[in-house]
Inverse folding.
């Protein structure tokens, strides 16, 4: 069995995000407090809005960092597990009929789509990969799964 795991490159841990937010918040509120003491009170709502926006972006980044995909290739089946935070989607395909496709984007400058599927049902994997990484993974997945209608292990057994 071969397993391919695709995770985003997220170096920010929840602890580091909390420390970063605390440092930025205290600095921002200190500066805003100074201006409020000078009588420029409209600075405070903007500082609060800025911190709320920063906090929501950090939360979004931490949640996206937990998203990942796992592709398991066994002799008879290809399974794709997609983890999106709390939700999990599991899709299985018969290995002999599974295809791997790298479809170009409809619009220039947009990333391509790495798809794996069978019988008209496809799942996109590796959304966070670079274009070069998608091409490499397409080659590796095709090599592991084999051509449509045959699997590498089945082909070797007949030789």
């Amino acid at each position: 069995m071969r397993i391919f795991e695709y995770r985003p490159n997220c170096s920010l841990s929840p602890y580091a995000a909390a420390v970063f937010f605390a440092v930025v918040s205290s600095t921002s509120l200190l500066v805003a407090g100074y201006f409020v003491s000078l009588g420029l009170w409209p600075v405070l709502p903007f500082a609060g809005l800025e911190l709320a926006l920063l906090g929501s972006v950090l939360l979004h980044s931490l949640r996206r960092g937990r998203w990942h995909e796992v592709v398991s290739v066994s002799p008879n089946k290809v399974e794709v597990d997609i983890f999106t935070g709390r939700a999990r989607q599991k899709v299985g395909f018969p290995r002999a009929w599974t295809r791997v496709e790298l479809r170009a984007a409809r619009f220039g400058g947009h990333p391509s789509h790495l798809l794996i599927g069978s019988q008209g049902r496809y799942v996109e994997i590796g959304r966070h990969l670079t274009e070069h990484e998608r091409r490499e993974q397409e080659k590796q997945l095709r090599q592991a799964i084999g051509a449509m209608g045959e699997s590498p292990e089945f082909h070797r057994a007949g030789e």
